[in-house]
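Example 286, ligand 2'-monophosphoadenosine-5'-diphosphate.
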Amino acid sequence: MHFAVLGNPIAHSLSPVIHSYFAKILGLKLSYERILVAAPFAKVAADFFAAGGAGCNVTVPCKLEACAFADSLDDNAAAAGAVNTLKRNADGTISGFNTDGPGLVLDLKRLNMLPDNARILIVGAGGAAQGIVQPLLNAGAEQITLANRHAAKAVKIAAKFASSSKVNAVSLNTLNEGQAAHLARHHYAKSFDLVINATSSSLQHMLPPLEPLILQRAGAAYDLMYTPQGGTIFTRCCTELGLKHCADGIGMLIAQAALSLELWTGQRPDIAQAIAYLQRYLQGRA
Ligand code: ATR
């Protein structure tokens, strides 16, 4: 079985490391390589499958093109408008999936961070934010608030989910003003069950502009980003504010890969075991 991850740049991708470890613990025989997409994505992907590839992961900036390339899409890929997993079927057709959001849900459940009927704040309104809305709704979220510096981007995403009436959009300024006043008046009021940082701010070592009270009164906080040392500037800030349940996105990274492997082979590796391995690997201890 031959697999790969396609993107540009690709040299930094941890997918081969993760999938080789999965293969080891499951006793599977597979190869997994990095492919730099330097030509149009459709050509690179078609060449990969023509050469016998069974499936591939797709990363930045090719997830939208992978959507167009696939012959069919699962619900999550259709809602995200992006594909991170392609699979060649027995009849030669190619199916497209998005395991990023389901990977997040799997990790949140593992961490006990997703209560029933959760009220969730998603900060950010880029591709990462859009990709997690449908899977969180499928997982039973009661209400999802998308907050972004530029409200128009959040409004655009929320409009795609207008039929569910559970997704609303707001500017970060408006959210901060409204929630701060409410929380200051009601000393025991909760803000959200879960705050998800879906901005890229942690990459710039910056915090999204969020009222500390909103974080302090949240049930849990999760950053889609991760660092080799574990934790991000956002999760550290939340911990300092007294939040007991904070996690970075390393579990989501492992879980989305595990769900891809399951789509290809029917087997799901142990996620906690793989997270522990990747942490050792990133710290040069594996
Ligand atoms: P991705 O596909 O990873 O989501 P993106 O489409 O570039 O990346 O989106 C990045 C998101 O992070 C945007 O919502 C951006 O906010 P704006 O739309 O207002 O620019 C958000 N973002 C990045 N840096 C941020 C920061 N320091 N504070 C708050 N939001 C930030």
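Summary: The pocket of 2'-monophosphoadenosine-5'-diphosphate is lined by residues 124-129, 148-150, 153, 199-201, 206, 208 (CB under 6 Å).
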